[in-house]
Amino acid sequence: MTQFKRRKFLIAGAAVVGASAIAGGVAWWYRARRAPHAGMETGAAAFPNALRLPGSSGVLGVMDVAAPLTIVARSMQYPILEGKPGPLLVYQVEQNGKTWVNPVFRVRSGTTVRTKLQNAVDENTIIHWHGLEVDARNDAHPVYAIAAGAAYDYQFPVRNRAGTYWYHPHPHGLTAKQAYLGLASFFIVEDDEELALQQALDLKLGVTDVPLVIQDKKFDGDGRLLYAPNEEEKVNGYVGDTVLVNLTPRPYFNAATRLYRFRILNGSNARAYRLAFTRGGRPLEYVVIGTDGGLLDRAYPVKEAFVAPGERLDVLLDLRGAAVGDAVVLQSLAFDPMHAEGGMAGMAMDHGAMGGQGQSQSPHAGMTMGGEARGAPAAARGAMLPDGAAIDLLRINVTSKTAYGARVPSKLSTLAPARAADVKPREFLLDLKDGRWRINGETFEMEKAPVTVQRGANEIWEIRNDKASMPHPMHLHGVPFRVLARTGSPQQLKPSVINEQGLATTDLGWKDTVLVWPGETVRLAVDFSHPYPGDQVYPFHCHNLEHGDQGMMINVKVRA
Ligand code: C2O
Ligand code: CU
Ligand code: CU
Question: Tens of pLDDT along 70-114?
């Protein structure tokens, strides 16, 4: 089949899938055929821990930002693995006699946020608000990192539209370690369109609108987090062998027969996920309603989606057609991680074992976490869960029946189409030299800005990833962008492609992080207008946090 015909075919397929998923939950549910040994690999016993849900305080508690508040970055003893408390770095907030740990901040668009960071960690740190359109000082470029014992004041209006943003540390060279050891949570912005959707679908944050942060970790025998990347892990990124959702290992979530929203954040240092909701091992259709910078124009049905470190995916799962006793597993399907493409330069289009199998490929083609040895301690399973392995992330148990008549609105938001300025693209090349990843031959220098942009400029950025490379989730601070086109994509992206520009659903809407595969060229439209006086310097970096810390980052100066 020619490339063109194949793409057409995929688009037609997606459209049909869409009609049924949006029409209602019943039809699609029963179309997912039961696999012969359904339940064996993903049975309830494999998910013994209740998913930690955002409550009104405590760990991941929801905190409505109104009054000024103080965030203390500190270490605490916390048992991620049951009965094994170990040190965890956290953001702690006290207010009105209650304590929040890594609070899920919730803010109305237009609100002015006033907060103080108190550094009670024994090294430099600083909070960066990932995705927020703030000035450089509030964005917290690494140059603003503060010493142990020091404090930093933030004050900024939330200019962003509603969306699932997040926050984490950004002291250069320490970002990966501190984020890995626990410092990260959500920053949820709401506006009228968002509140209308919540009302239409009867969504409640922490109950039926569930933030999910996915993070892979390594533990020592005493349940303490281990962060010690060797030279190879500094080049590839540090991946763990235990994947947590909301700091919960092997979690389950009890659900009713209705629609659920999951705001998924890949908060892992280096691991990407190919997300699918499966039943009896077969991927179901689900619906993408938003990406990094909030709601899309409408709901887009998918069966899988790649989500790289730093990216968010806002989805709806329709359980109306399910029966009590059914279960759905949120999985990462096996994929080719395309590490160390050096030996395979030039083969990116027809790559590895995954290539060519397309949609018929079994989600269990790769190694599944646990596998036959499920329930055995991590050491017995083998210490490594390779990047690209199939992973069971979360089991959703349908435990109660409920009447639910809401329908997904045909229009979700007023999202203007992406527009490309008629200008010569600014080019970026991602490559590896002497064991260090580079952007246009540069590695990070705190005081140097290899790129200067005029404030107000509409630019096209063309990011090309070397063929002899690995995937890089590229992130720009302060200035959201739109993804215009992808070319040279690997075969395994094909089931996700939805248009003639080669885009996946995860590329739609406002983005702040975009995954660039080896051999790919990705075009962005970036609008540098903002209201801030004076020059603003924003980092542009890889969100594989080891890559960023190793210097895969440059300063972009927006000249006033
Ligand atoms: Cu989420 Cu500069 O990062
Ligand atoms: Cu950021
Ligand atoms: Cu990278």
Answer: 999 999 999 999 999 999 999 999 999 999 999 999 999 999 999
Q: Rounded distance, CA 82 to CA 457, Å? A: 52
CB contact set of 543 (below 8 Å; sequence gap of 6+): 308, 309, 310, 311, 473, 474, 475, 513
Residues flanking ion ligand 3, Cβ below 5 Å: 472, 542, 544, 547
CB 265 within 8 A of CB 213: yes
Centroid of ligand 1 to alpha carbon of 475 (angstroms) = 7
DSSP 22-38: HH-HHHHHHHSPPPTTT
Q: In three state form, how does the secondary structure of 401-413 look?
A: CCCCCCCCCCCCC
> What ligand 1 atom has the least distance to the C-alpha of 539?
2
CB 273 within 8 A of CB 391: yes
Secondary structure of residue 350 in the 3-state scheme: helix
Sign of the C-alpha dihedral computed for residues 341, 302, 253 and 44 taken in this order: negative
Please say whether the beta carbons of 467 and 507 come within 8 A.
no
Neighbours of 560 (CB within 10 A): 12
Q: Which residues have any ligand 1 atom within 6 Å of their CB?
A: 128, 130, 168, 170, 310, 475, 477, 539, 541, 543
Chain centroid to CA 30: 30
Nearest CA residue ID for atom 1, ligand 1: 130
For the cut 50, the answer to whether the pLDDT of residue 323 exceeds it is yes
Which residues line ion ligand 2, judged by CB < 5 Å? 130, 477
**Structural tokens at position 519:** 């051999």
| 277-304 mean pLDDT | 97
Atom of ligand 1 nearest to the CA of 541: 2
Give the residue carrying structure tokens 């992080």. Answer: 513
* pTM greater than 0.90 (yes/no): no
- Quick one: which atom of ligand 1 is closest to the CA of 168? 1
Report the nearest atom of ligand 1 relative to the CA of 131: 1
